[in-house]
Amino acid sequence: MLKILIPTLMLIPTAWGAPAKWLWPTTLAHSLVIALISLTWLKNMSETGWSSLGLYMATDPLSTPLLVLTCWLLPLMILASQNHTALEPLNRQRMYITLLTSLQFFLILAFSATEVIMFYVMFEATLIPTLIIITRWGNQTERLNAGIYFLFYTLAGSLPLLVALLLLQNSTGTLSLLTLQFSDPLQLTSYADKLWWAGCLLAFLVKMPLYGVHLWLPKAHVEAPVAGSMILAAVLLKLGGYGMMRMIVMLDPLTKDLSYPFIIFALWGVIMTGSICLRQTDLKSLIAYSSVSHMGLVVGGILIQTPWGFSGALILMIAHGLTSSALFCLANTNYERTHSRTMLLARGLQMVLPLMTAWWFIASLANLALPPLPNLMGELMIITSLFNWSWWTLALTGAGTLITASYSLYMFLMTQRGPIPAHMIALEPTHSREHLLMALHLLPLVLLMLKPELIWGWAYC
Amino acid sequence: MADYREAPLASRPKTLDPNEYFNLSPNHRRSEEDRAALRANLKRQYQTQLNNPHRKELVEDPALTRWVYARANPYLTFKPTFKTSLMGAMFGVVPLFVLYYVFKTDRDRKEEQIKAGTLERKFSLSS
């Protein structure tokens, strides 16, 4: 574990000490080496499930895919941010890379934490660099509003979690994940225990986000710069999913009755946010609402607590992380050329940037869950386990799949096909850096088709 | 005014069309000419920007900016009327209760079948 953490920490002196011409290539190479070393975590060596076991940190098949995704994303964020920070003074560029690195550091600690309070502290700590990135480097005045919504929604959800965790520590004596799964089932009979149950899960539901409390997500994703959008969509949402999957082990048997409203919100949210996507005029807002839609399926998969549901949730989280980040990078290539997110203004791009169309096509196909990409496999596992839970969910999930396909197609046709508007002359040709960025997003997705056991979580041991 | 000739790409404006303007009052004619002058000025500004060979960005359209702002901030212009309340209830409140009822009765029925031992598990992975 330290062989990843210390290089990540050392990326901060690299960012501040590198000479100006070599800042971005150096940090890119450094973070790429960290990402490649993190791939060694994927080999699950031990029988107990927990590998790289230390006193406070460990990895198990649930957290390893998310850790590798986090480490993989840092070089991609650095690649994506090179253009829009090029006009800023050097020290501000160094600060930007430092913020991204500190976010990475907190995320690695969060996913590998063995003590739930450490996970909670890191969960909260990731809010601060993200808030700074959104409010300082966002492009419109709405970024202040977005930062406030983001911070206060998540904080309001996680304060009950702190109280619930302290209560749990009182009653079980430990909060170490290594042993908490094997402790006696808790006596959860009084009404206050129901509130405790809600307190445990609310923070993660707000983070996922669940449909009723999702309002912070479109604002934060749209107003953040590209690296902020990437890390938000790809990893920070999955913090909520990961937290839920860890906590829900201790919350039986209350979950059988109390989870109904949340499953209903999640499934109805899949349809509602998918329909909103069809009416969006802002490209990044469309991708943000599609994130809410996919995460609604993940929430449904987790709350029914079946092995297939958990596996499907983890697979969909990883696949969606890569796909959503790829789509935000594509939206950023549009934004850097036209400085506008309105879809009407940047259409018919196939005539102007045909190679980028190929990436748009693959990313849109991944978003609408084309087989044999892992997006479909995760969705299919969740849909079948929901069907097993109750036949009627098929109406909602089936309609959700249809709406997902239609808005992905809408997004592709709107940005790529059709006549190119007369006002768009002299668009910059596509940089090799942008092609590399898209390839590095979609290559892991394609490779995961060949060895999907890596992201099956606990179902593969 | 009477010598105005039609340009190859622009038709004669209505205020200068002799077939149209002899029965209009001079005030009306003057105001129409002023409006035509304003429009022509705006058109000239737009054409200058559009045909500038060194332009790399989009031509800014203030109407589009206002429209995008309105689309991004719907709560400023939201008014609770009968129709909007009905939409909110039909799509946001009623389905939640309907779905709760549907899922709860279905799951309770399944739970009773499990307790009675009559649940038929038709799908088997291993045989």
Number of strands of chain A: 0
Sum up the overall morphology of chain A in one term.
globular
Radius of gyration of chain A: 21 Å
Largest interface: A-B, 31 and 23 residues
In terms of DSSP E residues, the strand content of chain B is under 5%
Structural class of chain B: mainly alpha
Largest β sheet strand count, sense and barrel closure of chain A: none
SS element count, helices of chain B: 4
> What's the helical proportion of residues of chain B?
55-70%
Domain NADH:ubiquinone oxidoreductase chain 4 N-terminal (chain A): 1-110
Catalytic activity (chain A): a ubiquinone + NADH + 5 H(+)(in) = a ubiquinol + NAD(+) + 4 H(+)(out)
Family (chain A): Belongs to the complex I subunit 4 family.
Enzyme class (chain A): translocase
What does this structure look like?
Chain A has 19 helices and no strands. By secondary structure, chain A is an all-alpha fold. Chain A has a domain of 193 residues. In chain A, helix 4 packs antiparallel against helix 5. The longest helix of chain A has 32 residues. The radius of gyration of chain A is 21 Å and the shape is globular. Chain B has 127 residues and is mainly alpha-helical. Chain B has 2 domains: 64 residues, no CATH class; 42 residues. Chain B is elongated. Chains A and B meet through helix 13 of A and helix 3 and helix 4 of B.
Architecture blueprint of SSEs:
The complex is a heterodimer of chains A (461) and B (127).
Chain A: H1 2-17, H2 23-38, H3 63-81, H4 90-112, H5 116-125, H6 127-137, H7 142-172, H8 177-180, H9 191-207, H10 216-223, H11 226-247, H12 255-258, H13 260-278, H14 283-303, H15 307-338, H16 354-367, H17 374-389, H18 393-416, H19 432-450
Helix pairs in contact in A: 1-2, 1-4, 2-3, 3-4, 3-11, 3-15, 4-5, 4-6, 4-11, 5-7, 6-7, 7-9, 7-10, 9-11, 10-11, 10-14, 11-14, 11-15, 13-14, 13-18, 14-15, 14-17, 14-18, 15-16, 15-17, 15-19, 16-18, 16-19, 17-18
Chain B: H1 18-21, H2 26-50, H3 62-72, H4 82-116
Protein name (chain A): NADH-ubiquinone oxidoreductase chain 4
Domain NADH:ubiquinone oxidoreductase chain 4 N-terminal (chain A): 1-110
Catalytic activity (chain A): a ubiquinone + NADH + 5 H(+)(in) = a ubiquinol + NAD(+) + 4 H(+)(out)
